[in-house]
Request: fold
Amino acid sequence: MTDSALTTVPAGLRMPAEWQRHERCWMGWPCRTLLWGERLLAARRAFADVARTIADFEPVTMVANPHDVAEASLMCGQGIDILALPLDDSWLRDTGPSFVHDAEGGLAGIAWRFNAWGERYLPYGDDAALSAAVLAHLKCPAFLAPLVLEGGAISVDGEGTLLATESSILNPNRNPGRGWAEVEQIFAGYLGVSQVIWLAGGLVHDETDGHVDNIACFVAPGRVLAAAPGWRIDPDYEMLRTNLERLRAARDANGRALEVIEVPRPKAREIDGRALVRSYLNFYPANGAVIVPVFDDVADDRAFSVIAKTFPERQPVAVQANDVVYGGGGIHCITQPQPARR
Amino acid sequence: MTDSALTTVPAGLRMPAEWQRHERCWMGWPCRTLLWGERLLAARRAFADVARTIADFEPVTMVANPHDVAEASLMCGQGIDILALPLDDSWLRDTGPSFVHDAEGGLAGIAWRFNAWGERYLPYGDDAALSAAVLAHLKCPAFLAPLVLEGGAISVDGEGTLLATESSILNPNRNPGRGWAEVEQIFAGYLGVSQVIWLAGGLVHDETDGHVDNIACFVAPGRVLAAAPGWRIDPDYEMLRTNLERLRAARDANGRALEVIEVPRPKAREIDGRALVRSYLNFYPANGAVIVPVFDDVADDRAFSVIAKTFPERQPVAVQANDVVYGGGGIHCITQPQPARR
Reply:
C-alpha cells in the first residue's frame, strides 16, 4: 500500500490574493541573536509596533519561542495572541505556511520545504518544522510541497497568475536541477496557478537571492506595482529594467496585459557595514488597511501616496521600518495572512 | 491571550519501553546520496531486508521521498506500507517522533528539535519537519519539546527510568548552556521519567557524539545490556569502563540496582577509509521477535546468543547489517516503534 495524504494534493486548491479578506495575520517574535546583535530589542519593539498596527484591522498571532513568551506578551500588549512554538528566526512570510482555499472554499495550508534561504543561516530546523506545526495547531489540512520555497518568493492575483523571480526559486542553493516547467507544475497543483510570470531577479543586496516581494506584487487582477529602476548608476537598475520589460510583455492567466505602476525606491543606506534592503513594495494589506513601511527617506511620501492610491478603499498606515529591515526584510516579510473562508 | 497547545504538555505522558507491544514500525528509505555514495543501492537493499524481516512480526511503514516512492515500493515488495514524505536522510529513530502514552493510555507524539546531529549534515530541513509531518499524518496529538534530541540518544524502561549519554545530549552543538537538571525536567514532563542514568559517552567514531543506542539499553525493568569494554588498547575501552561503573552504581526510578549484562563487540573495521560503528546493541525488539544486526564477525554468534537469551520468549532473527552501518547507524537507528495503546 502506498500512502501519500500529505504530499498528494486534491484538485481545486487555490491561493487567494493577499488583498482578499483575512481571518488573521501570523507574525514571529525576533529571536536570532546572531542576526540582530545589539539591535534585537529595537527589532522586537518594531515587530510589536507592526503587530499592534495590524491588530487594529485584523487579529494577529505572534509566534514566540517558549522562553520568549512572557516578553513577547508584555511588549505586544493586550489584543495580540501569543503562540509558543520553537523558532530559529522571525520571517513568517518565509517560514509559515502558504494558506490556500480548497475546492469548497475551506482553509488548507501548504508547507514548503525550507533551507534558510539556501543555507545562509544555521540552525534552521525549527523554522523548517514551523509550517507543519502551525497547521497542526490550527488542525488545518496540510500539504507538503516538494519544492524549497519561501512565501516571499511569490505573489499571486488569486485568479491563477503568479509572479516570481528565477534568481530565487531556480537557484541551485534551493532547487538544484529544477527548471521552469517542473516548478510551474507544482504551482499549478498546490496553488491553482495556470500562468507564472517569471522575473529575472531581485535587489542585489537581498539575502533571499531576490525575493519578488521586494520588487513587485499584484495589487488587483491585471494590476502590478513594481520597483522603479531609478538611475543607470544604481546597481539594481539593469535588473529592474529587465523586470519591467517582462511585466509589460506579460499576460496573466486570463490573457490580460498588466497595468504596471512604478514605485520609487529609498536611497541606499548602510548600518554597521550592512547594506539595508529597503523597499516600499514590502507592505502588508490588512483588512480595510494597507500597512506601508517608511524609512525616513525623501521618497517616503511619494511611495506612500502611490500605494495609498492603489488601495483607495483602504486606510493607508505608515510604519517606521528601519529597525525591521536591519534584519533583512520588510513588513511583508514578517507577516503571513491566513485568509478567511471563501 | 497566550496559547501553547503544542509546547505545553498535559500531565501523565509516559514513553513505554521498546519491548512493549507495537502498533507499527516506522522506517525511512535511504536517500542522502552524499552519505551513501556508490553504496546507496546496497543500503536500499539492506533497509528493504530489515523492513521485510520486521514485517513478519508487525506492520512496517517505510517513509520515502515522493520521487522515491515507486522504487521503495518495488524493492520492499508487498506487505510494507510506503508513505511519501520529504526526507533528507533515513534514520527514523532520530528524525521520527518519540511516541508516548497519554494518561489514558492513548497515543501521543513528541517532536524533538532536530539539527542533524550538531549540524553535521546539510540540508536537514525535511528531517526537522518530519516528526510533525508523521504526527499530522496519524492525526495524533503532537507536542514539540524544547530540546535538540534524537531518539537514539535515549533508552527507557517504561517505568520512569531513562539511560542517556552526556556527550550527546549535553553537547554544545545541540543544547548549549543546558545542564543535567534542565534536561531531566524536560524528560520528566514529556516522557514521564523520574530517574535519568547519565552515562559519560558513546563510541569514539560515532557521528552522533555517542548515542546510547550503540552502547547500552534497557531490556527489562532493572536489566540493562551494555557494550563490553574489551581490551585496554581499544579506543573505546576507557569510556565503556566508566559507563559500566556508572551502570553498576545506578538505581532506577523504583530504587532498584541494575543487572548489567555485557555484550561483546565486533572488531574495528574500515570501508573506504570510513570507520564503521558496529554494535550488536543496536538491535530492534519487534512484537514477538528481536532483530539483531550481525557483521560477519567472529563475535556474531556470542553476541547474538546473549541478546537471544535476554528475550527468551521472542524469536531471535539475525540480519546482515554491514551495508546499513556504512551510513552510520544500525537496526535500532533505522527503526521507530509506534506503541500500541496501553
User: Anything to note?
Assistant: The longest strand of chain A covers residues 22-28. Chain A touches chain B through 43 residues (CB under 8 Å). The mean pLDDT of chain A is 97. The first helix of chain A runs from residue 33 to 36.
